[in-house]
Amino acid sequence: MPALSFQLQHTDSHSKARAGILTTDHGEILTPIFMPVGTVGTVKAVTQQQLVQDVKAQIILGNTYHLNLRPGLEVLEAAGGLHQFNGWHRPILTDSGGYQVFSLAAQRKIKEEGVTFRSHIDGSKHLFTPESVMDIQRTIGADIIMAFDECPPYPSDYKYAQDSMHLTHRWLDRCIKRFEETPPKFGYDQNLFPIVQGGTYKDLRKASAEYISSKNAVGNAIGGLSVGEPPEMMYEFCAWSCEHLPWEKPRYLMGVGTPWDLLECISYGIDMFDCVMPTRNGRNAMLFTSKGTINIDNKKWEKDFSILDDALENGVSNYYSKAYLRHLFKAGEILGLQLASIHNLSFYLWLMGQAREHIIAGDFDGWRREMIPVLKTKM
Q1: What is the band of 1 on the pLDDT scale with cuts at 50, 70, 90?
Q2: Domain extents in the chain
Q3: CA–CA distance, 50 with 62 (Å, rounded to integer)
Q4: 195 phi/psi in degrees, rounded to 5
Q5: According to a count of CB atoms within 10 Å of the terminal CB, is the N or C end of the chain lower?
């Protein structure tokens, strides 16, 4: 019996936004939720203690492709899985490596059997199959693991998107078979999420969502969006995919996005998000705040001694000034990258908490409409 359960608590009356509780063997997750990305077992520049105390993260991501290369399965198994290895004792989700099928296009070959990757580290060849991806994720030991899929690029013609979708579905059947044949390794349950594909074609998206739904998994993911298509198209296909997924199961939109993307997609019924944007943009001097975005490199902040964001209650955002953080970036100090990353992640988690409160209060849609223009403001 899967350990994951999902309880829907409140639904917004003017949109399809929902508030719920996801329960795993490593704890509860209040939805909607943003999941910081820890590709190789670490959220870049942020310690596990900071993730708990400042960011207030409830679940983080790891990546199957990258963890398989470094530190490798022998180390992870000896450690007792990723939770023990990195000291994060809350829930973890692992991506299957399907995104690397898309992002490392120049270094891979796709066949029915699986995908052959050439390592970006040393050029060695590695074959990822649905079966091996399940085995690798068993060894990593995440609470939620993803099916192996192909993520078609944008734009893709209809035949490519259709063939890719059918391949993803065949791989899903193999993933499920292998998952059901193999027990978890570390004394707690794992949960498999299939992924909706279909490119930017409504009939394919509908067919994929219906096929995925027929597998009766504990949760479902929407993939293949935010890969270069215009935001309006991403919104359209996110909403369309949600319409054809089970209402009572959690929905995870992979790789999205800006703060305003998150609020928009919550209104369509998305419960879970991940993206490298808060940390990557933070390391490049872009801050997300409750009043808009800041390029902390700009001279206008040189003598601005106000705190980063008075809406956030963490040891970075309401302690350090804009002038000081700008100084750290200008001086090339590593601390600047860390503080910006913690601030941005804290903001994303704060925003999800605010969305949840407004869903429960019954005024989410009005708040969202007011909030999105504020978030887009360039300060």
Answers
A1: very low
A2: 33-275, 282-376
A3: 17
A4: -125, 125
A5: N
DSSP category for residue 119: P
Residue pair 315/297 in contact (Cβ under 8 Å)? The answer is no
The Cβ of residue 180 has, within 10 Å, a number of other Cβ atoms equal to 10
pLDDT surpassing 70 at residue 102: no
Neighbours of 273 (CB within 10 A): 22
Given this model, what pLDDT does residue 58 score?
98
Contact in structure between 42 and 82 (CB atoms under 8 Å): no
Whether the per-residue pLDDT at 101 is higher than 80: the answer is no
Rounded to two decimals, the pTM is 0.97
One-letter amino acid for residue 26 of the chain: H
The verdict on whether 297 is a catalytic residue reads no
Q: Which one of the listed residues 95, 143, 271, 309 is annotated catalytic?
A: 95
Sheet holding 115-118, edge to edge: 108-110, 115-118, 125-128
Cα dihedral 100, 103, 108, 111, rounded to 10, equals 70
Q: What is the pLDDT of residues 317-357, one digit of tens each?
A: 999 999 999 999 999 999 999 999 999 999 999 999 999 99
The catalytically annotated residue of 54, 143, 261, 274 is 274
The number of residues in the chain equals: 379
Bridge partners (DSSP) listed for residue 145? 94, 192
Say if strands 115-118 and 125-128 run parallel, antiparallel, or are unpaired. Answer: antiparallel
The CB density around residue 187, as the number of other CB atoms within 10 Å, is: 9
**Secondary structure class of 275 (helix, strand, coil):** coil
> Which amino acid is located at 194 in the chain?
P
Place of tokens 């790891």: 62
What type of residue sits at position 10? H
Give the alpha-carbon dihedral of 116, 36, 354, 255, to 10 degrees.
Answer: -20
CATH architecture assigned to 33-275: Alpha-Beta Barrel (3.20)
274 among known catalytic residues: yes
Place of tokens 């490392």: 104
Q: Which of 258, 187, 265 is nearest to 221 (CA)?
A: 265
* pLDDT tens digit sequence for 220-231: 999 999 999 999
**Residue bearing tokens 């074609």:** 201
